[in-house]
User: Fold these one by one.
Assistant:
Number 1:
Amino acid sequence: MVKKALTIAGSDSGGGAGIQADLKTFQELNVYGMSAITAITAQNTLGVQGVYALPLEAVIEQMNSIEADLRPDALKTGMLFNSELIEAVANNIREFNWGNVVIDPVMIAKGGAKLLQQEAINSLRETLIPLATVITPNIPEAEVITELSLHTIEARKKAAKVLHKLGADYVVVKGGHGEEEELVDLLFDGQSFVELKSTRISTRHTHGTGCTFAAAITAELAKGKTVEQAVKVAKDFIHAAIKDELGIGSGHGPTNHWAYRNAAVHS
Ligand SMILES: Nc1ncnc2c1ncn2[C@@H]1O[C@H](COP(=O)(O)OP(=O)(O)O)[C@@H](O)[C@H]1O
Ligand SMILES: Cc1ncc(COP(=O)(O)O)c(N)n1
């Protein structure tokens, strides 16, 4: 049976992050990809030139159409922009009883542009996080949600516990923004931690890494993998995508979404 995954996120005209990164990743992992677009960004590797949130009805209607005909086996959320959108998306996920929910709490683009309004943080905490099978904050996002300062692995473990208490079944605090030479993503299931370690690749081409990582988790959950299995595949997927760089654009270039497939063929 074909497995189906849905992304509820913003469009990145540059193709490296958002909806575009998610659909490419679903496709690479042999899962049928669907989308409900929340906002359109005019964006390239140099930054975000414009943000246009879609009307609420447009987002709700996209989700309704999917529920009526193509129920997803797993879904992820990315850029949700404001509290109205967060509340509406959360309501629909709850009403449709959609499972395998991956929340990537996107806040700021690599170039510094705001992809989530400050007023939306409470909605994120109270409405969306309780629906999460997995939440995947980077360090700055985890700092905003937990109001902790996260310079050490120990502090990040504390933050993971707070995020679990807020209602996420599993928490991945990603380590890309950390200061350690070795890169550590922390997976917490409410009881114990798994440390996913990798070398830190020296590159500026990391546009869309968070989206791609969360999309790979979503695709694997759609196939029925456990969260731990899914996160391990996602870590390998994003590592290959960063390592085998495309080198396009003059700023923070996109990752290589077909690198994992090629690595799998050649290894
Ligand atoms: N320079 C890097 N080398 C290897 N892996 C990286 C690098 N930067 C990020 N990653 C991986 O990419 C994923 C996303 O990382 P992170 O930068 O923390 O989040 P975001 O892209 O949301 O800011 C994580 O799995 C992280 O380990
Ligand atoms: C539409 C959209 N969604 C998300 C991101 C975050 O991307 P990154 O993974 O680089 O933080 C982005 N730049 N644009």
Note: The first helix runs from residue 18 to 28.
Number 2:
Amino acid sequence: MLRYLTAGESHGPQLTAIIEGLPANLPLSIEKINHQLWRRQQGFGRGGRMRIETDQVKIGSGIRFGETSGMPVTLVVENRDWKNWEQRMAIEGNPPDDLEIVTKPRPGHADLAGALKYNQTDIRNVLERASARNTATLVAVGAVARQLLEQFQIHVYSHIVELGPIQVGPVEGTIEEIAARAEQSQVRVANPEKEQEIIKLIKNVRKEGNSLGGIFEVVVTGVPFGLGSYAMPDRKLDSRLAGALMGIQAIKGVEIGMGFDAARNFGSDVHDEIFYSPEKGYWRGTNGAGGIEGGVSNGQPIVVRAAMKPIPTLYKPLRSVDMRTKEPFEASIERSDVCAAPAAAVVGEAIVAWVIAAAFMEKFGGDSLQETRANYNNFVSMVKDR
Ligand SMILES: Cc1cc2nc3c(=O)[nH]c(=O)nc-3n(C[C@H](O)[C@H](O)[C@H](O)COP(=O)(O)O)c2cc1C
Ligand SMILES: C=C(O[C@@H]1CC(C(=O)O)=C[C@@H](OP(=O)(O)O)[C@H]1O)C(=O)O
């Protein structure tokens, strides 16, 4: 079983992840993990914190001479901002005399619900972990999962399909071409005509002190038949993908394939007819199902979309109530992202890669990459002529 845990606060010394259940002898490149961390920090609309951080992973265990040993892998990403917070976020000792505690909950954040749930008078103890800073660890974990998937020619891509009120519209080309254009874009859109329009919108929204969300699409190619199961709801690949994507900060909706649009169309326009040819095996002319039927991967690309709400911290303050005085106040802030949907798309890719890798290991198992590959090859040849 492939599993992971993460720990770490936004302004603490470091973020940590432990992955357990990777097969032995899997080549793992730190450079590839760092590349994914870099991608997550990009995107027009991010705030001052991104100018402080340059995320790099440190491996603490489970890898020797560039390959996994089959033992738990520890990943650490240090917070550069920690040096500015050492007093206020000290692990030991007493709080400094001049410590300003946070008593003003921000609408759209975990602040109020978290302070009441964990009985905290200083909301900092809530926001530090609720912050999307820990999406850096998710991306590091996903970057490891991707390297396992790449061994089996499974690839994960993303692009932005809507940003605030702007629809990117139909995009031309293969999945790989669309992804390559998104990769070049400052806002991860595959349609270059829309890029400038979106950047202008983000600039205006920033000027107005407001914020934006967006919708991104993640596509996975090369997924074999048979990941996930209809045996139980929690084993369905679609339920696992939706749950994992909803676990990313600010994600409020997930669609698989046609998603909500399936409900607006006739059955004949939604379901993907089945064809067979000796060269291609079973094939489909459409992919309304987004590569999953009955909670099981059906050999088509997996297509999922996730909706991110606008960033909740606004320069134009929203009304709230001080938890100490119960007096109303209007929040003032020092820095925030205005739009982080392009970054969220990279986090989405990571978490999707993780779910696919976990389902892959569940199906094929194996304690070494060689054993996993033998099991995979065996299944592929078993279903080839069926
Ligand atoms: C990549 C990324 C960056 C984010 N940056 C900010 C930010 O700078 N300011 C902010 O208020 N919220 C930011 N958020 C959103 C909040 O973390 C999130 O809305 C909050 O933790 C509440 O969680 P919920 O929206 O899932 O309910 C970001 C989210 C993501 C995915
Ligand atoms: C640090 C990251 O994102 C942060 C997520 C975040 C939030 O409230 O979720 C608030 C901001 O941090 P700060 O409060 O330090 O300015 C973002 O920069 C990151 O993505 O690495």
Note: Residues 281 and 384 are 7 Å apart (CA to CA).
Number 3:
Amino acid sequence: MKRLLTIAGAASQGSAGIQADLKTFQERNVYGMSVITATVANNQTTEQGIFLRPLEEIEAQFYAATEMVGVDTIKTGMLFSADIIEKVVQLIDHYPVPHVVVDPVMIGKMGSQLLENEAIQTMKQLLLPRATIMTPNRYEAAKLLDKHPSQTKAELIEDAKALYQFGSTYVIVKGGRIEDEAIDVLYDGERVQLFHSSPVHTIHTSGAGCSFASCLAAELAKGKTISEAVDISKSYVWYAIQYALNFGEGIGSVNHAAKRMYS
Ligand SMILES: Nc1ncnc2c1ncn2[C@@H]1O[C@H](COP(=O)(O)OP(=O)(O)O)[C@@H](O)[C@H]1O
Ligand SMILES: Cc1ncc(COP(=O)(O)OP(=O)(O)O)c(N)n1
């Protein structure tokens, strides 16, 4: 079984972050491990706060996973501060793996700030050049490029090309629902590839981004090509959104088990 390590924040309401990553790893038949960078105890009605883990604890978690079990692929999510990014980069350099999937999460759907503005520069300079693939949505792409969020397919393509300058081997910009399709744009420095699916008309999409990046990491670890891994991840998340969980209040969670249950 391939061994996957997510370095991300815990999302107490269960849809996103570490919780989404581990649920997705289980669904994709890989062995999941975690380094928790922070605990996000927010939902749409309460703001209990964001509790950062000390750098020493982040390092200890990383070694607990790499020394005892070993890691085939790393996925990063919420890293919050420049200090945490620097620590994670140091750890990744110490333990090289074939694939690092960087999901540059910035703002959660519940409104939580998951990356400090001052940390964006550090992410661009230190983390993105180490990524096999970076997976921003169009809002994160806009922040990284210091522009307005793209509204059209043509603009998403320009974003993917511009983001490639930050040094990841591949870039995928997730359009989400745009031009009445769910379009993602993959760029490898030469070729643009578009991935389409029908849009699901729902607000219950919390965790879609984390689950997409985790599925991508799992499939790359299993030896799939980038295009195959994106295809599988798009289908995995489409089912997760189509069969999303509405808990009766606010934005509901994607259903991480939906592809297994309903396809
Ligand atoms: N309403 C939707 N219907 C179908 N696919 C969607 C929808 N919203 C997002 N997606 C797809 O889900 C994946 C994750 O999207 P992303 O934009 O990262 O979600 P998030 O809103 O959590 O950031 C992408 O492949 C995207 O195209
Ligand atoms: C702790 C934590 N990490 C990441 C996210 C962002 O999740 P994502 O799947 O990209 O999008 P939403 O859940 O915000 O829809 C998060 N919310 N919490």
Note: The pocket of adenosine-5'-diphosphate (ligand 1) is lined by residues 137, 174-177, 182, 184, 197, 199-200, 205, 208-209, 212, 234, 237-238, 241 (CB under 6 Å).
Number 4:
Amino acid sequence: MNTAPVLQITGLSGGYSLNKPVLHDIGLQVQPGEMVGLIGLNGAGKSTTMKHILGLMSPHKGEITVQGKTRSSDPEGYHSALTFVPESPLLYEEMTVREHVEFTARAYGVERSDYESRTGQLAALFNMEDKMDTLSSHLSKGMKQKVMIMCAFVARPALYVIDEPFLGLDPLGIRSLLDFMLDLKKSGASILLSSHILSTIENYCDRFIVLHRGKVIAQGTLAEMTEAAGLRGLNLEQLFYELVQGGK
Ligand SMILES: Nc1ncnc2c1ncn2[C@@H]1O[C@H](COP(=O)(O)OP(=O)(O)OP(=O)(O)O)[C@@H](O)[C@H]1O
């Protein structure tokens, strides 16, 4: 069956100044119900790609569509079709955990009953039930990251963009997050996930995109990428090492 991609990036070049692009002709897709791992060394361009998807930066060239919409053709439809977990938590110090989650739910037009059941489920899943009425400034680093995750998951958009979510999470939190993402995927959601923890994401992502110095140097399933590189049998970490060392 030929399905339309939820996220499609075509010929994207972009960066922080016009005369110094960081991304060079990026092309990638994420299909419905797919979890795709975006991997690359520090500075490869993963967060910059995500900032372009979120509309925090404008492409120098190329196009990004989410469910067939661009930011310029349908800004509201585009933005309501995705949520984001940033690499570092960004919270309002004077707001409680519950207020953050409620604020996000309202922004995404989540029904009250859905908000209540999802919040209860997420609080239990991430072991945050006794912190729901705590000010964010009184939370630990890992708990702050959990608030960002709960905010992204209280809405049910078509696409979740998740930037290195595991840092700071305890082992139970990491497992809960991975299992929750698998459930979302089964329900048809699409996930673009960046992480350096390759041994963890190897078993969870359907496909991978390898970014190196702002270019896509490989993409596909692990089997497809190892086959294409003539390196069958390697695990993701071994293949990644070979690809980026070879690209030096
Ligand atoms: N605010 C900024 N202003 C100017 N250049 C930036 C800015 N943020 C990132 N860069 C540059 O853009 C390039 C890509 O950085 P980016 O943050 O996208 O990398 P990344 O793949 O997410 O890395 P990491 O794994 O360290 O998070 C780097 O060369 C970096 O120096």
Note: Residues 91-156 form one domain.
